[in-house]
């Protein structure tokens, strides 16, 4: 199932659930609201009627205990007795949908708004009807019947009870709830349609991003384009674009490396093959044979060095166990580097000056593979000895919580067109050898958690800087 469908199905189910819960809450809230409002209105009506009954002249109910209609109550208005009901206030009560019953102190019904027809429709004797009504009124007055809302007030030696069937309130509530449900359903449909539009806009960049990742899968890195999107999707799209650029760059470097490696290997192999064939065919005689053999040996050694350095680079790039980190003293490693490179310095007539900032030579310790770090320094210093005129300066110190090792010479400096690519493979100057020495140094320094850079000094010559994090 596609992500677009999954999101919308999940949202639709959630929307239905929320609307169902909302409808149930509306039902109970509306019902409770109508009940409270109707109770308040009935209480006010009961109080008003009771006050009118007590204020107006009373009429005697000649036939106590009899159920009266409004007309019968008006006919009895000529008599006089302790308990009375005014004829002016009885008949309007039923118009409001509220039934009224007046009982005496013994709970006998002396007046009711129930119609005579409703009483006559019951197939029992009048005495049984009076008893049943009196019993039911007592139950309603005491709040034991949940089918009615009740409001009672004391009047002259009796009780006025108003009650309203709950069915009428529920009918009103159901009507209003039905309309609210229609509004909720229409709103839910509109919200769902809006979610479809929003989801499609959110999913569209992901679909485009999937297409760009297909290009990466097929190694078409240069064709990858930046997908414009906001938020986290935009961050992922930008990361994919940068990844494609890096992969394209790496792919280009790999192709260039293979081409350069082929060229570097081809040159000594051609020399070896040429002199070997010449000696075999008798082209070289006497001293020429010895000279040819010397060249074969020299080119074989050069070929061996290239293969060794290429193998080391491959291991530094791909093998984890080739590197064994341990605390290494900078002062010791610099001293050993100078001792190792001393024959080349004497041959070229160069001097080396070493210095340490603020007498911190005993405190400079880095986490590195000692043999590999020594090789990286030897490569950089021997490269400086190849171009220096009189001297090489090696300085070590701490700057911004990083250990720095600077190797500077007083030569002509690095050509500007060569400087950005100086630490790439098979990049070499006019007197370079394999073009792999500085690339190996960079790989070693980076495996130690540091970085290496080069610049031309204003006073002349090149300055190669290695930076390492301090050992904890």
TrEMBL record:
The keyword Glycosyltransferase does not apply. The chain crosses the membrane at residues 6-30, 176-198. It comes from Paenibacillus hemerocallicola. Keywords: ATP-binding, Cell membrane, Kinase, Membrane, Nucleotide-binding, Phosphoprotein, Transferase, Transmembrane, Transmembrane helix, Two-component regulatory system. Its main location: membrane. It catalyses: ATP + protein L-histidine = ADP + protein N-phospho-L-histidine. This is histidine kinase. Coiled coil: none annotated. GO terms for molecular function: ATP binding; phosphorelay sensor kinase activity.
């Amino acid at each position: 199932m596609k992500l677009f469908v999954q999101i919308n199905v999940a949202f639709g189910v959630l929307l239905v659930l929320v609307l169902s819960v909302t409808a149930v809450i509306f039902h109970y809230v509306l019902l409770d609201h109508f009940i409270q409002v109707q109770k308040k209105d009935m209480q006010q009506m009961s109080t008003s009627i009771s006050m009118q009954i007590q204020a107006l002249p009373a009429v005697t109910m000649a036939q106590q205990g009899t159920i009266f209609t409004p007309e019968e109550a008006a006919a009895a208005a000529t008599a006089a007795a302790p308990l009375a009901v005014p004829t002016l206030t009885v008949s309007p009560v039923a118009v409001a949908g509220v039934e009224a019953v007046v009982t005496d102190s013994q709970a006998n019904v002396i007046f009711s708004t129930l119609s005579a027809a409703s009483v006559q429709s019951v197939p029992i004797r009048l005495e049984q009807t009076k008893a049943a009504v009196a019993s039911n009124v007592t139950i309603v007055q005491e709040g034991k019947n949940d089918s009615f809302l009740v409001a009672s007030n004391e009047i002259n030696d009796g009780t006025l009870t108003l009650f309203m069937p709950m069915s009428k309130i529920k009918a009103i509530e159901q009507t209003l709830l039905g309309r609210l449900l229609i509004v909720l359903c229409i709103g839910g449909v509109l919200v769902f349609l809006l979610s479809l539009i929003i989801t499609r806009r959110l999913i569209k960049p992901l679909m485009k991003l999937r297409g760009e990742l297909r290009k990466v899968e097929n190694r078409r890195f240069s064709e990858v384009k930046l997908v414009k999107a906001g938020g986290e999707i935009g961050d992922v799209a930008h990361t994919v674009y940068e990844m494609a650029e890096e992969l394209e760059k790496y792919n280009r470097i790999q192709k260039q490396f293979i081409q350069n490696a082929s060229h570097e290997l081809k040159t000594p192999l051609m020399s070896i093959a040429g002199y070997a064939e010449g000696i075999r065919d008798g082209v070289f005689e006497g001293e020429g044979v010895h000279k040819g053999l010397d060249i074969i040996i020299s080119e074989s050694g050069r070929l061996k060095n290239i293969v060794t350095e290429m193998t080391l680079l491959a291991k530094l790039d791909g093998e984890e166990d080739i590197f064994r980190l341990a605390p290494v003293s900078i002062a010791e490693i610099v001293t050993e580097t100078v001792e190792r490179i001393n024959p080349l310095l004497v041959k070229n007539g160069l001097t080396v000056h070493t210095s340490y900032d603020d007498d911190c030579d005993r405190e400079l310790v880095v986490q590195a593979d000692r043999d590999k770090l020594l090789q990286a320094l030897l490569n950089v210093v021997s490269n400086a000895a190849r171009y220096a005129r009189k001297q090489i300066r090696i300085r070590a110190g701490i700057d911004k919580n990083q250990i720095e090792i600077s190797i500077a010479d007083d030569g002509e400096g690095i050509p500007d067109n060569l400087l950005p690519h100086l630490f790439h493979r098979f990049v070499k100057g006019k007197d370079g050898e394999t073009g792999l020495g500085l690339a190996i140094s960079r790989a070693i320094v980076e495996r130690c958690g540091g970085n290496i850079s080069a610049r031309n000094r204003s006073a002349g010559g090149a300055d190669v800087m290695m930076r390492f994090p301090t050992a904890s």
